[in-house]
Amino acid sequence: MSLLGLVVITGWVIILTISFNLLLANRLKSEADSALRTRATTAAATVAFKDGNAISVREGADDAVLDSGIWVYSKDGSVERPHGDASIQAAADRLAHGPSRYLNNGETDRLYSLPLIDHGKRAGTVVASVSLEPYRHATKAALAGSALVAGFVLLGAYPVLRIAAGRALRPVDEMTKQAADWSAHEVSARFGDEQRFREIQTLAATLDGVLDRLSAVVRHERQLSAELSHELRTPLARIVAEVDLLLARHHDPAELETAHRAMRESALSMERILETLLAAARADIRDAPGRCELAPAVAAAVASLGPETRVQLHTAVGPGAVGVDAAIVERVLAPVLDNALRYAATGVRVTSRNEADTVVLCVDDDGPGVPVEEREAIFEPGFRGQPDDAHDGAGLGLALARRLARAATGDVVVSGPESTFEIRLPPA
Predict the structure, then answer these.
(1) Helix (H) or strand (E) holding 105
(2) Which among 330, 405, 315 is positioned nearest to 363, based on CA atoms?
(3) Are 389 and 378 in contact (CB under 8 A)?
(4) pLDDT digit string (tens) for 365-418?
(5) Among residues 69, 80, 75, which one has the least CA distance to residue 97?
(6) Where are the extended beta strands (E) located within 327-380?
(7) What pTM did the predictor assign?
(8) Beta strands 121-131 and 109-118, pairing class
(9) Are strands 347-354 and 312-316 parallel, antiparallel or unpaired?
């Protein structure tokens, strides 16, 4: 930043220096021209006109000063000619019969011609000259002085810029280190709305947003880990218990078959849990929505439950598509169906309907229903109903189903007097 600032200042100083010297040179040229006009006009005032357009120069007390660098010409030739080198004499002669104009004699002298008019006719010419040496000297001195000043300005600008940039960036450096420390040890800390300069406040708001997203990711990972460990504990404990029983004593074929069936059901339960959690994680980070036909996805979810259910399961899902992947539909519907089959008395029915901007998948059962005061609590991780509830389950299936549906811009709710579970999904 200091070097960039120095480059900008250097460019600006160069522009100012050049502009100043150009303006000064132009001003000195104007002063020289003004001095020439004044001298020519003063000399013309000393000229007297005679009959026949003859002219003469009246002598005065300051003739030596006035005659220096002054030429007076008549129609026939020069009336007054000062001493000078041949080049300046030749330049004055070139101006003798021309219009009023300026002429440089190399870089040393500048001349000006003023026609003499008598009764409307040109009678002669006055030519004045001035040395450009003082003006050139002033121009060179000004250029050297401005260059010296510019050098001192640039020499002093860099350390000042270094100090200023260091002071300006110190809060940025401190905030960066603080954000790095918070991201590692205290993701809940924030910079807040403390009064700061606008740029620093913008940076603070940006870092707070980054920390918010990081905190959300950490919470999500912690929740996912907790849900995995909590939900997998029950089927895993069943498998371990069955293995211990098998190893403890000899079993007849019927007992072995029962144990194998129990371990298989526990393993399948663990598989469904893992698939649901992983599908939820994928939905959280997915950029583009998917699409699937609803009826085949429902059929796949029903098939994943297995053929051995104690109640009847009826499906009446109409044709149509939803704006999520089939795997998402299966993973959302499976826990809801499992819950309905667990509490139903004789049967479960799955239907669908279309609303304005939502496809609703309804799951009804003829069980005792969900009390109104528990219709939100059942979607909390670990909730397992009333204390006397004898049904198995770790209380995470519905929580995972709702989370997965919401990650797909849908939802899972309980509505109506008969506690109908509604799975709301976006249309295709």
Answers:
(1) strand 102-105
(2) 315
(3) no
(4) 988 888 888 888 888 876 766 544 444 555 567 888 888 888 888 999 998 888
(5) 75
(6) 347-354, 359-365
(7) 0.44
(8) antiparallel
(9) parallel
